[in-house]
């Protein structure tokens, strides 16, 4: 399988080079040159597969023969052996017509583990195969950092640095990163927002000299491996419902920040999965919801909410969606992104907006609505939603679909106890989380500038082990 850039100046890249490249060298994002197409017959055959077996089938389509099947199988098995649920991502009924897809049974209790356990093992595999060192640089709005660190801590040939916005993530999110004491991990708390972190990362990756000198690698969802790994659970959820006798298409409601998770659902649909509607749920940072209703993509004022992992204004994966919206025409995407860079916003014509609305519906969930949703489901069903999942469930409650809906449960409520307490609910922490409060922390404060971060990275990357 070959990968190409959304901006058209990079093509013919193999899978391993695509994950190593992260951001394409022309500033665009990598996508598969051609999407695999799955028939109904194949989907029927996949119905009995375990999660790991399904992942192996889907990854094989995207990887081709670059990784021998037995080695790929080992990578997949290692990646999902760390999950606490036998089904990896189980589907549970919440109310009539609505199921939740629980994506939080990995080591850090958020859905990011599904992709980052795999990507961590993939990096270890590549480092061992090529005898090279891999330096990972990432920014987190809260959950990616812990997942990425957990995916590579202590692994030979890999160093990782994660930027997080100081004071803008939950206490458990912070502790999950800063209590790690492996020497190959560096936590930098930046004096700014997640968008500042993401911008710094993009700047450092765009500095091709710096990137190549330090073999800089990405773990943010600009990395195509993350998106591909996330397509698997859309298939898995659909097949679980089909197995129960649910005929016909399914809608998915997705708590959205960087547009990575919901984009994976969109790709699954383009690959032939019978997806009816994709419900895009945002919090009060509602740029993407406004895009779906009005066709204008314009970052607004940053808002702190109960769902910090979705406190994002500039969604880096959005460019991948534009590529498909514009019929895989890289010249149009490059022009739109140039417009965005010049004007700080972009808008699409009416026919394109109609195409957006044929696939997506959106709802921006207010802070109070989020808390009310957590309280109501807890009272009526006993199920405790985390604040991100609550946004997806609130959107599914608000937007009627002709098909049954599955809301993606992206995190465990124990990660966001600050918000759960506001609802007046006391929860018991799982032991892995309770344990964090006892451990020493390792973190440095840094100004939110690319220069400051680059200086610190030079030291970290050049240190002798
Ligand atoms: C990252 C994250 C999201 C948003 O996912 P995107 O791929 O950035 O849209 C939603 N919920 C939780 C818990 C997250 O960690």
TrEMBL record:
Keyword Lyase applies: yes
EC code(s) of this entry: 4.2.3.1
Domain Tryptophan synthase beta chain-like PALP: 102-398
Cofactor: pyridoxal 5'-phosphate
Domain called Threonine synthase N-terminal: residue spans: 2-80
InterPro entries with a match to the protein in the record: Thr_synth_N, Thr_synth_N_sf, Thr_synthase-like, Threonine_Synthase, TrpB-like_PALP, TrpB-like_PALP_sf
Modified residues (N6-(pyridoxal phosphate)lysine): 112
GO terms, biological process: threonine biosynthetic process
Pfam families from the UniProt entry: PALP, Thr_synth_N
Keywords from the UniProt entry: Lyase, Pyridoxal phosphate
Gene Ontology molecular function: any one: threonine synthase activity
Family in the record: Belongs to the threonine synthase family.
Name this protein carries in UniProt: Threonine synthase
């Amino acid at each position: 399988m070959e990968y190409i850039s959304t901006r058209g100046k990079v093509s013919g890249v193999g899978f391993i080079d695509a994950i190593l490249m992260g951001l394409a060298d022309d500033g665009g994002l990598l996508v598969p040159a051609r999407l695999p197409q799955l028939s109904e017959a194949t989907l029927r055959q996949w119905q009995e597969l375990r999660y790991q077996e399904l992942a192996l089938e889907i990854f094989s389509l995207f990887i081709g023969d670059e990784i021998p099947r037995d080695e790929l199988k080992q990578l997949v098995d290692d990646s999902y052996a760390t999950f606490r649920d036998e089904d990896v991502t189980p589907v549970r009924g919440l109310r009539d017509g609505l199921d939740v897809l629980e994506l939080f049974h990995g080591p850090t209790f958020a859905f990011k583990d599904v992709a980052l356990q795999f990507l961590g093992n993939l990096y270890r595999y590549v480092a061992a195969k090529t005898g090279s060192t891999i330096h990972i640089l990432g920014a987190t709005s809260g959950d990616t950092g812990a997942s990425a660190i957990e995916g590579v801590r202590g692994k030979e040939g890999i160093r990782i640095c994660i930027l997080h916005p100081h004071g803008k993530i939950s206490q458990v999110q912070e502790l999950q990163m800063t209590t790690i004491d492996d020497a190959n991990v560096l936590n930098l708390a930046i004096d700014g927002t997640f968008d500042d972190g993401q911008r710094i990362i993009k700047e450092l990756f765009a500095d091709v000299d710096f990137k190549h000198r330090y073999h800089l690698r990405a773990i943010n969802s600009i990395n195509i491996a993350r998106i591909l790994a996330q397509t698997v659970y859309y298939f898995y959820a659909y097949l679980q419902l089909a197995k129960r006798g649910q005929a016909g298409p399914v809608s998915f409601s997705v708590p959205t920040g960087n547009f990575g998770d919901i984009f994976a659902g969109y790709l699954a649909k383009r690959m032939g999965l019978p997806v009816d509607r994709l419900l895009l749920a945002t919090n009060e940072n509602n740029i993407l919801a406004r895009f779906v209703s009005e066709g204008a993509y314009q970052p607004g004022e940053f808002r702190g909410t109960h769902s910090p992992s979705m406190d994002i204004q500039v969604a880096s994966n959005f460019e991948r969606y534009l590529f498909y919206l514009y019929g895989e025409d890289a010249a149009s995407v490059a022009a739109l992104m140039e417009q965005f860079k010049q004007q700080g916003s972009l808008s699409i014509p009416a026919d394109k907006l109609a195409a957006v609305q044929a696939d997506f519906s959106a709802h921006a969930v207010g802070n109070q609505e989020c808390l009310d949703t957590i309280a109501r489901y807890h009272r009526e069903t006993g199920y405790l939603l985390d604040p991100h999942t609550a946004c997806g469930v609130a959107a599914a409650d608000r937007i009627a679909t002709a098909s049954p809906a599955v809301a993606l449960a992206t995190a465990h409520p124990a990660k966001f106890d600050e918000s759960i307490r506001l609802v007046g609910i006391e929860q018991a922490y799982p032991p892995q989380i309770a344990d964090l409060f006892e451990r020493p922390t390792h973190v440095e404060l840094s100004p939110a500038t690319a220069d400051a971060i680059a200086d610190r990275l030079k030291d970290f990357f050049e240190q002798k082990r």
